[in-house]
Design brief:
Helices cover about 35% and strands about 20% of the residues. By secondary structure, the protein is an alpha+beta fold. The protein has a domain at about 10-315: Penicillin V Acylase, Chain A, CATH 3.60.60.
């Protein structure tokens, strides 16, 4: 599994290999009021975001997929092709349009039809590993792994084994280290993929009593002296490579974060939210959906960098069409969470890819005149019909900026509105689930699809209406009470990250 190292970067260059951090939170089922585990979080991405429901697909023998990074990446590499499996699973994901040297569209994860949820989160490796990353590194990148897991994994443990196999067979193209938080109804796994081109990774199992926040992802002490550690997985050379580099003596505890990571263990934000959720878990009512949503929305953790919000109840419904996640198109401080079901036929136009903040769109037109002269690269990648609809992302960002200029007054008002909307949605979606289950039990799958699609589309558009209406109100009050700030330094509530 060890790949030949090449010292393609010096220490100064290695220091530049910083990633988008993102945030993931797993709550084991023993801590929740409904006995269901949750996986939640968001992606730290400045480019455009859109919601996708990707159908199950069959692939002909010999089909390949393109993976890796380009020479434009912070840690440059090359693209390569790996085999595609015969069938890929239906899944819901949030995609985005840009990260330096990583071909778009990209994803941080989502939920598939088998009930496997994935979140991708940065996890910095030690500088020496970053420095030894080959200049021609190849293999799946962080987004490739998240997408492949959604396409192929049937359990969380299966997801770990898929990552291990892909790294062993094809390598791993990284930007300084990364992690994935993979969960199903029974358990979750934190997987750290270390930089350096050495095939190094480690995975820790999280059971029903776990509360784990990743920002960045971390794994601490690994029981390497136990011949069969039930809750940890790692490659055969995991310890020997560290000993060979002089990073581990071979005696005492093996702290993976200290040996191969940044050595900081849990960052302050992760420690804070874990303690907050542990306190809520000790209440008689334990942790409910509203608590998990709060953990993604709280302004101490969520601001403009949070490109979207996602909460996945890891339930086991009788029909896979009833698996669902709660979604916001922007940071949850500026939008309510809305249920989106696996059985929805398509995403409403307002939540699909728009030109707003999309990589490369500033140099393109919704016009073919230049394309007629051999300049097809000047034509927008966004269909004109989609661009003619409202953009949920743009509307949410406008509201976020209105809220944050006077967050002491406006944030409590917005939060109370979102919580009221979500409470109503929590009640109504339970009835929709029961109704759709009756239809599916009766073999009326098309009617069930119609019901789920109508419900999710209606509520997503109602959420967008509420965002725009609140923005209109806050704009009016801002204009006449405060005026609009022109200071180049943006305002926001204090964050712990």
């Amino acid at each position: 599994m060890v790949r030949g190292g090449c010292h393609g970067m010096n220490a100064r260059q290695a220091g530049k290999a910083e990633g988008r951090v993102s945030y993931g939170l797993y709550i084991g089922r023993n801590h929740t009021a409904d006995g269901i585990a949750y996986l939640a979080g968001y992606g730290d991405e400045p480019s455009s975001h859109w919601l996708e429901i990707v159908p199950r697909r069959h692939h002909a023998p010999g089909t390949v997929i393109s993976v890796g990074v380009t020479q434009q990446a912070d840690l440059p590499g090359r693209m390569s092709e790996i085999p595609q499996v015969a069938e890929t699973s239906r899944h819901i994901r949030v995609s985005y349009s840009h990260y330096k040297g990583v071909p778009s569209p990209l994803t941080n994860g989502g939920l598939n039809e088998h009930g496997v949820a994935v979140r991708d989160i940065w996890s910095p490796s030690r500088p020496e590993l970053i420095a030894m990353t080959p200049v021609d590194q190849s293999g799946p990148n962080y987004s490739d792994l998240a997408r492949i897991l959604l396409e192929r994994a049937r359990t969380a443990r299966d997801g770990v084994e898929i990552i291990a196999d892909l790294i062993a067979r094809h390598g791993y193209a990284d930007y300084g280290g990364n992690s994935h938080l993979i969960a199903d109804a029974e358990e979750a796994w934190v997987v750290i993929e270390f930089s350096g081109g050495q095939g190094l990774w480690v995975a820790e199992r999280l059971g029903p009593d776990a509360i784990r926040a990743s920002r960045p992802g971390y794994v601490g002490v690994v029981p390497v002296h136990d011949s069969r550690p039930a809750d940890f997985l790692y490659p055969a050379h995991f310890v020997s490579f560290a000993r060979g580099q002089g990073w581990y003596s071979g005696e005492g505890p093996f702290d993976a974060n200290a040996v191969y990571g940044d050595g900081r263990g849990r960052w302050a934000g992760a420690a804070w939210i874990e303690a907050e959720m542990a306190g809520r878990a000790r209440r008689p009512g334990k942790i409910g959906l509203a608590d998990v949503i709060w953990a993604v929305r709280t302004a101490r953790l969520t601001g403009d960098t949070a490109g979207y919000g996602q909460v996945v109840p890891l339930a086991t419904p009788a029909h896979k069409e009833l698996r669902m996640l709660w979604h916001t198109q922007v940071g949850a401080v500026a939008a309510p969470f809305v249920p989106v079901f696996m059985g929805v036929a398509e995403v409403p136009e307002e939540y699909r890819a728009h030109r707003y903040l999309s990589g490369g769109e500033a140099a393109r037109f919704l016009d073919t005149r230049h394309a007629d002269k051999g300049r097809s690269d000047t034509v927008s990648l966004i269909p004109q019909g989609i661009e003619s609809t409202r953009s949920a992302s743009a509307a949410g960002k406008r509201l976020l900026n209105l809220i944050f200029q006077h967050h002491e007054a406006f944030l409590p008002e917005a939060t109370a509105l979102w919580e009221a909307i979500e409470a109503e949605l929590s009640r109504s979606q339970a009835g929709i689930v029961r109704s759709a289950a009756v239809l599916l039990d009766a073999g009326e799958s098309e009617l069930a699809t119609g019901l789920l699609t109508y419900y999710s589309h209606t509520e997503l558009r109602r959420a967008l209406d509420s965002i725009e209406q609140l923005a209109q109100s806050l704009e009016l009050r801002t204009r006449y009470r405060h005026g609009f700030r022109t200071d180049p330094v943006p305002l926001s509530p204090p964050q712990i990250w």
